[in-house]
Integrase (Pseudoalteromonas citrea), 403 residues
Amino acid sequence: MLSPLVDTLKQLRYQIAHIEDGTLTNEYPELESFLSHVVRSVPNARDDIEFLYQFLYVYGRKSEATFNRFRNELERFYLWAWEWRALSVFELKREDIEAYVEFVVEPDNRWISDSVQWRFKDHEGLRVVNKLWRPFAFKENGVSQQTFSAMFTALNVFYKFAILEEKTFTNFIPVVKKNSPYLIVQSQIKLPDTLSNLQWEYVFGVTRDKCEENPSLERNLFTLACLKGLYLRISELSERPQWSPVMSHFWQDPDGFWYLRIMGKGNKLRDVTLSEDFIIYLRRYRQYRALPALPRVDEPHPIIHKLRGQGGMNVRQIRRIVQQSFDLAVDSLAADGFSDESEQLKAATAHWLRHTGATHDAQHRPLKHLSEDLGHAKIATTDQIYIQTNIKDRAKSGSKRKL
């Protein structure tokens, strides 16, 4: 029977301690039993898993999303190496990794579940394996380019780290990736997912109009303003173990300009500029919360507050707020006869608001300023995603061609 190898980020440090102390059976008896079975054919399996935990601790502790992404990719790679090749991951050759890519394209049916499942569950003080868990979740349309890219990235980072730690001296991933028949080099036009002008007018306008009859929607309105007007990711507004967005993170410079200090990807702090329009909605939201018109440097209040309870909100709760406004707009668009716009809005996610704000402002803001507010490490990233000038010009010149 297959067993997952890695629990949650929170449990990782306990798994590391158990592996180092030889006490895994005290909390993970089924995982210990599985490893004992694997060691018969792969003597270095325990060393392999100890290194996996070390890697995930180094690369995953900053962000749970990063941890989950690397865990998912490496866990099934490990299991494949052990079960299908009876080799340590550090004994695999180029042809083995090519075979693994083929396996990812068409996994064994016994390795596929109908849905995403938890790996371990609590049972009488033990962490027991969820019998429904499998390394792969069924995807109707097969393996996407994004999945292939994530797989190669995770494996490449892993082997680079292993070389630095002198665990191995070879990394076959770059050559396998370069010659993979499944990874398509992206050269086509790819526009970011955004709301149309009409959809945004309804999302924001309907929420604002309904605030009169339902004042609690002021929180929705301000959340929309933050995500679209400040190009924020939901995670940047949410409560996290290492960061709690509070009102004192809004600050004003000596010239009267306002900023919001946030923690973005990779635990990088940045200051996002506030527009005059945004200040209007900041004042409005604070008035609704019975706070002074503008934030002070010592305010501990969460930026997005809970209607019940203390503290800030998590990603799931903020996503639910945004979806509520999307649903209101979907109904209003349909009622007003905009059935196509209404239907298309059903596919939107909260991240579309960041793209919508940046795409709109790319028409009139300097690229460097936009890039810094977005938190991109390179201006080229902003240019590639949001600046469509060359594409438009090419389309205009191309439309005049004669047959």
Notes: The chain has two domains: 11-179, 200-397. The mean pLDDT is 90.
